[in-house]
Amino acid sequence: MSAEIGRSDFDRVMVPNYAPVNMVPVRGAGSRLWDQQGREYVDLAGGIAVNALGHAHPALIEALTEQAGRLWHVSNIMTNEPALVLADKLVKATFADKVFFANSGAEANEAAFKLARRWAHNLHGAQKHQIIACSNSFHGRSLFTVSVGGQPKYSEGFGPAVGGISHVPYQDIAALEAVMSEHTCAVVLEPVQGEGGVIPASDDYLRQVRALCDKHNALLVFDEVQSGMGRTGKLFAYMHSGVQPDILTSAKSLGGGFPVSAMLTTAAVAEHLAVGTHGSTYGGNPLACAVAGRVLDIVNTPEVLDGVVQRNALLVNELEAMASEFGVFSSIRGRGLLLGAVMAEQWRGKAKDIQVLAQEEGLLVLQAGPDVMRLAPSLIIDEADIAEGMLRLRNALQRLVG
Fold first, then answer.
1. Is the CB of residue 62 less than 8 Å from the CB of residue 56?
2. What's the whole-number average pLDDT of the chain?
3. Alpha-carbon dihedral sign for residues 171, 177, 180, 182
4. Max Cα–Cα distance, the chain, nearest Å
5. Is 331 annotated for ligand binding?
6. What are phi and psi of 288, to 5 degrees?
7. Domain covering 71-299, topology
């Protein structure tokens, strides 16, 4: 790529809906990145929980290049082997009987919400259409998904919003019960609320939500776009609680960096997306499914899942030590390798400052709102990279506190 292209060209040629950092990465290996100037970074952001196996994993390169030499695209007027293989693996590994493939988390959620309403319409009539979601949730950027997501900053100015959607506080079972009725077709939630602050739901709360859905004959939809594919130490976060959803969505880590998403559901619910009711031109693309199939083979093993738990302990211990030393963080929360360091009261609103200082120290981290620093590294990040990343974070915090 031409060295004449740089970060300033973003402002010249790209729609200004993003504000990318002031460097351009050009190469990655494992949990390290290098920019145009050759500077190296430890990556604890993981492409926002996408790069499950780090950068340029040889098994994913092999899967992609092998498939690239065979078949790239056929559309949904026919099926293909990688899609069938991946769907079979997902069905065997989860509660699901059926799979629908798309390209992004938003598209998987769009399919889930449409399916929930179609199911309710077919079985109970048009009046059973209410979708209940949680405040501060995030389910994507399409008009339907930002309407379901409980963050006005993502939906304001795009009205009128999709109707028939209610919001209740996360983990408030009384509030949920108060708005559920015979008109409710689905309850949608993240088992670990990601963009809303990296907040895990309690097992008891999930069990109570499941019971309310059963009582009101409504579907339970788990958005596991961020929490799924091994990120919490199990293949999907719902497996910690044993609470089984009716629909589950997956993306991000599913493709290990290649765009792909999936909606998983039961046979009884799936039959309501009959021929012609929904689709995706690129959904089930052979390249994407070949890569995702290889990701699933690697992630869904005791070695990787147990390793997530072990790496969690290393990171949490380091973060808690820094919280005690610097007083910047009030608590560390999350599950597995989806972690949030909550800013202490006097440091509220400073998560962005940490992100900037960390980058200057050669470390990539994330925010989950202005008050939470978020980490979502590779599930197989080397312990040496964790140690180096924590050293660079310590340097950034020392600069922050002065």
1. no
2. 96
3. positive
4. 62
5. no
6. -60, -45
7. Aspartate Aminotransferase; domain 2 (3.40.640)
Would the annotation count 141 as a binding residue?
yes
For residue 259, whether the previous peptide bond is cis, meaning omega lies within 30 degrees of 0, is no
pLDDT digits (tens, 9 = 90+) for 281-322: 999 999 999 999 999 999 999 999 999 999 999 999 999 999
Kindly list the catalytic residues: 138, 223, 252
Nearest to 185 by CA among 150, 219, 149: 219
Q: Cβ(149)–Cβ(140) under 8 Å?
A: yes
Homologous superfamily, domain 8-56+302-401: Aspartate Aminotransferase, domain 1 (3.90.1150.10)
Q: Strands, DSSP E only, in 238-388? A: 247-250, 261-265, 329-335, 338-343, 363-364, 366-367, 372-375
Is 105 flagged in the annotation as binding?
yes
Token readout for 70 is 């065979």
CA distances from 386 to 13, 93, 138, 226, 230 (A): 36, 30, 28, 21, 18
147 is in an annotated binding site: no
Question: What pTM does this model have?
Answer: 0.96
Look up residue 291 and give its two tokens: 């890569």
Asked whether residue 224 is marked as a ligand-binding residue, the answer is: yes
**CA pair distance 83, 93, nearest whole angstrom:** 15
